[in-house]
Write a structure and sequence with these properties.
Layout lengths: L1 E5 L5 H9 L2 E7 L2 H10 L4 E3 L6 H9 L3 E4 L20 H13 L3 E7 L6 H12 L3 E8 L10 E8 L8 H6 L8 H5 L7 E3 L10 E3 L37 H7 L12 H10 L3 H19 L13
Parallel strand pairs: 1-2, 1-4, 2-3, 4-5
Antiparallel strand pairs: 5-7, 6-7, 8-9
Amino acid sequence: MQTIDLFAGCGGLSLGFQNVGFEVLAAVDTWEPALKVYRENFTHPIYNLNLGNAGGIELVQDIKPTMIIGGPPCQDFSSAGKRDETLGRADLTISYVDVIVTTQVEWFVMENVERIVKSHILKNALYLLKKAGYGISYQILDASYCGVPQTRKRFFLVGHKHSADNFLLPYFNKNLSTKPMTLFDYFGDTLGIEYYYRHPRSYARRGIFSIYEPSPTIRGVNRPIPKGYSKHPGDPVAISKEIRPLTTKERSLIQTFPEDFIFSGNKTDLEQMIGNAVPVKLAKYVANCIHEYLHDQQQNIHITAPQLEFS
């Protein structure tokens, strides 16, 4: 299946789908540091294009993909942001939907933070997609149950022109791991550490974590241990010279980018880029669910899905 990645960032979603066998024809983003990294790792083109204008629709019409994938900017829904849908970036979710509806692409996948389920933007988007004739499935997936050593909950919305609502839900659920993946499960002892520091959003939260648990969500901020950091009641050990923050490279590996993926640029940009990325193996998990669904359809295997309700 041929696809185009809108809001591609550094390419986590593209790479996950590509690894399952989907052909990525092109990608779109507007942030130059991410564009540069994407170009260094993929052979297909990526365009600097704002989807808030007609250019995105024209590009999709020219390329004619079977599927659109993408993760519209999530800061206005995120628990790390101001959670204000009026700030403007949430409008790009509707721009993304407009491209889908106008081009009438057969398939689409939209990724976002879990808090989008509480937004008016999502209700509007679902209305427009249903009106355009798409059968839709959506699910909040915890990456640690999808082959990623990280507790990272993300919302995925998948639409198909020729399927009933909730068509993918049985595949989302039946393919989940029975337990979360830890850093030790993924890396063994190759990180050379047992405990590490991850800067908390507030000092009401712990900052020290063990490799025998999933990593907390990789964010766009990676700070050193502050001087005078006091042990939090939830910290498994006290700060010592053995405790350090994760490196930029380690954070990219926790996001399940491969060892040979090229990240070039300044540290601030790379930390933000990696924190914003879709984990490659989470994207692969979703792509595999779609691939399995298509295979079952070809074999005339039908799994009954529950009725989707709209509030």
